Amino acid sequence: MKGWLRADGRKGIRNTVVVAYLVECAHFVASEIVAGFRDQDVQLIGFPGCFPNEYAARMMERLCTHPNVGAVLFVSLGCESFDKVRAANAVDASGRPVKTLVIQKSGGTRATVQAGRDWVAGALTQIAGVPRVVMGVHELIVGTVCGGSDGTSGISGNPAAGRAFDLLVAEGAACIFEETGELIGCEEIMAARAITPELGQALRDSVQKAERYYATLGYGSFAAGNAAGGLSTIEEKSLGAYVKSGDSPISGLIKPGDVPPQGGLYLMDVVPDGEVRFGFPNISDNAEIVEMIASGAHLTLFVTGRGSVVGSAISPVIKICANPDTYRALADDMDVNAGDIIEGTRSIAEVGREIRDLVVAVAGGAKTKSEDLGHREFILTYKSFEPIGPACLPGAA
Amino acid sequence: MTGPFLLLHDADNVLVARANAPEGLEVGLESGPVRLTRPIPMAHKIARHAIAAGEAILKYGMPIGIATQDIAPGAHVHIHNIRSAYTATHALQDADGISAGVSR
């Protein structure tokens, strides 16, 4: 497979122009710019808030300098608090074409949409010249998430995703699993897999933080549909979700935006630090996907039982359906039928191998179902994090 | 086990439906055959044997909750008779896995 070579040496599996609104007030104008490029790789992302937030600023910089991104257009209303100069400087320093349009200074909606489309058209031509070079599996970063889980997720889809992770880690890839709020009850067995005792304690602490956080909010990371699908408690959901991580040793604990320093398996701590502010940690599945992309994920494995249809901006989503009935109902949206495991027609190892092979095919340019359908979901909200502690990346050079 | 139920771990006191199981279906448990008193949707659980109130529910060999009442062999094990040891479960009208969860 080949990747687009970026100035920092990282390689992308896509070459996308990102149009990013910097406050909800600029959302429509940004989406109108993107609407002019329906069949080209131009994607909308953005941050809705008008208050400043270091997490959002850092996430936006990481996303806009992701290896799958070739060029960036920022769309500002003009009076919002987002530091658009800092963001544009970060993209510029990464060697990518970047432009900022301020609606209040560009003549309003119509003129800004036209200026934006003109710039994007030029950027597409410019980034078509970015060199494609040989890329190995060891250069991939792969995330995993489960959403719309049911009682099949932990028996078929998640174990198969875990098997794929084991294969990818053995080939040198960096794999990220996450949602510490859905690891409640698994902290001890997980800590035992850490490559150092200190990292093990950090993993345990991250889950305990999640437990406190959700207790304050009054709801676990558990949707009503999980119960309809046969899951009775958060710890039952957690045990099913945990097996997505496979059997590899855990090499590190990262937070959103931290890029894994080398291959291996990493837990992403997605629950904010400090007292409870800004509400629920991840208000929907795409918030988790976006955070893994900010940590460099080239693509994401999404395991669903009830049946999610989402994709993502920037990095493709491979959807693995755990439930055979859901697969039959939503086959157009699903890349992998792990329901075969429930029905006994294929083994976990066989489906795990299919997922690993599909990761390589998608990295090589094959489109996922959600990409082909045009799904480009994106969500970024307020959070607050402290940097990771010294025990979190023991293997880093 | 007979029929569409899976035992995921030897220590478990629940079995998981690998397909929708109709009401009245005879299921061979270690204590003898029982008939399902309600349909059990795919991926829902039944009791492998009698479970006393206060006992831990084991699935994958791990605790997934606590029985809030005595549960008979073959009975549906779900939010009406078990609770989380951590956070209360949020559910809507469709939690039985059968109701549509939408108004007509």
UniProtKB/TrEMBL annotation, chain A:
D-galactarate/Altronate dehydratase C-terminal domain: residues covered: 138-383
Keywords for this protein: Hydrolase, Lyase
GO molecular function: hydrolase activity; lyase activity
Coiled-coil features, chain-numbered ranges: none
Keyword Transferase: no
GO BP: any one term: D-galacturonate catabolic process
Domain D-galactarate/Altronate dehydratase second: 3-126
InterPro entries in alphabetical order: GD_AH_C (IPR048332), GD_AH_second (IPR007392), UxaA_altronate/galactarate_dh (IPR052172)
Pfam families attached to this UniProt entry: GD_AH_C, GD_AH_second
Matching PANTHER family: ALTRONATE DEHYDRATASE (PTHR30536:SF5), ALTRONATE/GALACTARATE DEHYDRATASE (PTHR30536)
Family designation: Belongs to the UxaA family.
Entry protein name: Hydrolase
Organism of provenance: Gemmobacter lutimaris
From TrEMBL, chain B:
Residue span, SAF domain: 12-83
Alphabetical keyword list: Lyase
GO-annotated biological processes: D-galacturonate catabolic process
Gene3D superfamilies: 2.30.130.110
Keyword Lyase: yes
One GO MF term attached to the UniProt entry: lyase activity
CDD domains per UniProt: SAF_AH_GD
Top-level taxonomic group: Bacteria
PANTHER family membership: ALTRONATE DEHYDRATASE, ALTRONATE/GALACTARATE DEHYDRATASE
Protein name per Swiss-Prot or TrEMBL: SAF domain-containing protein
Organism of provenance: Gemmobacter lutimaris
